[in-house]
Amino acid sequence: MIFPSQHESAALRWVSAAATDKGVVRTVNQDAFLDRPDLGLWVVADGMGGHSDGALASRAIVEKLGLLGHANHLGTAAQAVRSMLQGVNQDLLDRAAAVPGGDLIGSTVVVLLAVGGHCAILWVGDSRVYRLRDGVLTQLTTDHSQVQALIDAELLSLDQAEGHPLSNVLLRAVGSDSPLDVDVKIERLRGGDRYLLCSDGLFREIDPATLATALGTSSPPEIVESLIRQACERGGRDNVTAVVIDFLTSSDGNGQHGRLDT
To answer: Which of 100, 117, 195, 237 gets the highest tally of CB atoms within 10 A of its CB?
Structure first.
């Protein structure tokens, strides 16, 4: 169901939509998302597959971040997000330690926080942010994964990384270690930008060229619905979540944002 509303800041307006699906193979959806255009806040969290409490971890992240108030200063708000994630990280570690022989309770997370004409991107793990600007798709996050570490060390090519047996091995996740290291990037927003936040269940099924084509069409609610459908049709081997945000100037016409649950 789509719930339309509207948001406008002093610099830009934004419209957004989000969707998630358990996919074709999994029986439980361990992904969670937050679509809060009223706060300029969007989140995707992917509970670690194979761990019984992955869904608990991802839900704990989005519930905590949903308590964030309206931000007036980007740096202060980004620090608040970092502190919240570190708090959830410790809570998950304590919960896992309380069960003798208990499994790790963990999740990836990626956050986009917009204030005025800039946004902060914060992430842990391999959930991603992409930006489509002037028809060019750019990945703005770098995976905290074993495969990415091998690529960075020039021990593995991008072609070799596709389908690599270590592709699901993470080097960092909320709930896996203390202290938690959260990467942060600040980006200047431009009218006409389209951002995508997604779990690995999306980008492992849809190649970058197809992703760029899909993001270059239609409106955010229609795009997220299409992306989820395509990921499932191409195998749907994991839970899949997509959040799409358009940043608009006042001359771009009336904008609405929506939330789409599937």
So the answer is: 195
Residue 257 pLDDT more than 60? no
- Paired tokens of 186: 């600040």
pLDDT in tens, 218-239: 999 999 999 999 999 999 999 9
Backbone angles phi, psi at 224, to 5 degrees: -65, -40
Omega within 30 of 0 (cis) for the link into 37: no
How is residue 250 annotated by DSSP? Answer: G
Q: What is d(CA 107, CA 159) in angstroms, rounded to the nearest whole number?
A: 27
Element (H, E) at 151: helix 146-152
Strand-pairing partners, residue 18, are 243
- Three-class secondary structure of residue 90 per DSSP: helix
Q: Any idea which residue has 């169901």 for tokens?
A: 1
Residues in the chain: 262
**Taking the model in full, what pTM does it have?**
0.89
Tokens of 228: 């989820």
What value, to the nearest 5°, has the Cα angle with vertex 172 and ends 169 and 176? Answer: 100
Q: Which amino acid is at 35?
A: D
- CB-based contacts of 244: which residues, under 8 Å, 6+ apart? 16, 17, 18, 194, 195, 196, 215, 220, 223, 224, 227
- Going 31 to 36 to 37 to 41, the CA torsion angle's sign is negative
